[in-house]
Amino acid sequence: MARRRQIFEGKGKDIFEGPEPGTIVQHFKDDVSVHSGAKTGMITGKGVINNRISEHLMTRLSEVGIPTHFIRRLNMREQLIREVEIIPISVVVRNVVAGSLATRFGLEEGRRLDRSIVEFYYNSDDLKDPMVLEEHITAFGWASHQEIDEIIALSLRVNDFLYGLFVGIGIRLVDFKLEFGRVWEHDQLRILVADEISPDTCRLWDADTDEKLDLDRFREDLDGIEEAYQEVARRLGILPEGGVTDLEIPTIGAVRNISES
User: Along the 261 residues of the chain, how does pLDDT read in single tens digits?
Assistant: First the structure.
C-alpha cells in the first residue's frame, strides 16, 4: 500500500496514517532498544517475524472473544490496526520469576509462581518506566477504577489462553507485557488489547531446557538471537522452511469494515 503520513516513530515500530478514518498502519522494524534506550541495536528479520507472530496471536485472541486492535496484515512488515486512545500504562503478567521480579526481591530466576502476578508500569522512557499502583493510575487520571478492573480481567484471560497455547508447542510463557487502548463503539467506550504480542514483549523459554527465545538474548548478549525468534514462529506453525523471506504476503484488497474486527 502507498506510504502515508508518519504519526509516530517508536523504538521497534513506526505508526502511519491509515487508509480510512479509524485505522492506522503499524510498521515493524528490526531496530531494538532495551533498558529504556540505554542499549540499542538491530536484529535482522525481527520486524518480519514479530509482524507475523503478533498477527497470529492477536487473531487467536479474537477467536476466543478477547477484543484487540488488529484488523489484518498488509505485507511482511505492516499491519492494519484500529486507531485507539492508548492508555499510558504497560501491564505485565508474571507466571515465573525472572527479570526485575528476581532482582527486586532477591529471588531465584525460574521459580514457578503459585499464582500469576499483575503489575502496572507507567510508559515513560525518560522516567525508565516506573512501576505504579492502581492509586497512581486513578489519581493521575490515566484510567478509571472500572477500566483497571476490565484491564486486569482481560490481561488474565490473555494469560490463560497464551499460556496454554505455548505449553502446547513446548514453550513456557514466563511473563509478558500488554498495552491497552480505548475506542468508541455504538456510543459505548470499549477497552482493546493494543500494541503487539511477540518475543519483544514476552519472555519465552523452551519448556525442556529453559533456553531463552526472546529479547533477553539481546539484553544478555547471547548469540542466536535471530534463530530464537524464528524458532518461536516455527513452533507456532507460521514460519515456512525457507525462512522469513518466504512468508506469504496477503493480497491487498478492500479494507473490511473496522466494526467487524
Answer: 455 799 999 889 999 999 999 999 999 999 998 887 778 999 999 999 999 999 999 999 999 999 999 999 999 999 999 999 999 999 999 999 999 999 999 999 999 999 999 999 999 989 999 999 999 999 999 999 999 999 999 999 999 999 999 999 999 999 999 999 999 988 899 999 999 999 999 999 999 999 999 999 999 999 999 999 999 999 999 986 566 654 554 433 333 333 333
Q: Which CATH number is 6-84+225-247 given?
A: 3.30.200.20
* Contact present, 17 and 3 (Cβ < 8 Å): no
* Torsion sign (Cα): 32, 35, 37, 41: negative
- Domain 85-216's class? alpha beta
Q: Are 61 and 193 in contact (CB under 8 A)?
A: yes
The residues spanned by each domain of the chain are: 6-84+225-247, 85-216
